[in-house]
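Marked as duplicate of an earlier ticket. Keeping the data here for the record.
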Amino acid sequence: MEVEDFEPLFGEPKVEWPATTSTPRPFLFQVHAPDSSHLTFHATDFFSSTFSAVRSIEQLDDMRDDIGIGGSWSEFLEYLVNSIKFGDVKLVLEGKSKSDGPESARLIAQKSKGMPRISISLLKCVDTAANETMAILSLDLYKAHQKNQKLLIQEQEGRCQLTKKLSAEQEKSKHFQKQLDPHYPKRHISHDKLTSDTLSATNPNGVSDVQINQNPSPMKASKRVVPAHRRSKVRGALLRDIDEDD
């Protein structure tokens, strides 16, 4: 990785304000390469505090020795990018200027706990310099947004084209299958008809066993006639009138 390959980086750092600050505001930072031999660091709240710093390749190389990061220059630049892009980034505001707000700041980035920290001292911008810094950050942020949106659209279009190709391949596969086996559709129709006929023969009324079990027809008990020889006889004495015997 070289400086000319450096893509602008943006983010919202964790801000450490001086104890006397009554109305802390959020900040945005930017790191970009204005040319092939420098990196520029910006931080602003778009209100009253804007900071900036420029580091040449030689200064960054000296910082690499001070931090104690070995390896090649390309590996150090990659570590710096990963620390700012994925690590913990803080903006420490220091001092008190005659005008409103702190007079300096430090942008500190650490890839992960225990790893070397990148620390860049920033000076406060005023008047035209502050406006120019905010304008550069805003314009570069818009360009980065447009680029990401374009990449997203390209990815969606590529996914749509891939879906169409997949659908076309499936249609081709069905067409080839019909050519190799012309009876393929008829077999499916015959199989469905055979299944329907089997079900009709098994259950002509179309009533399932479950319905029969759930709705059993109540059977009325028939009246049985008792045979004459098994009928009960009237038991007891026959009372006769005495006058009739006489």
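See parent ticket for discussion. The two ends are 152 Å apart (CA to CA).
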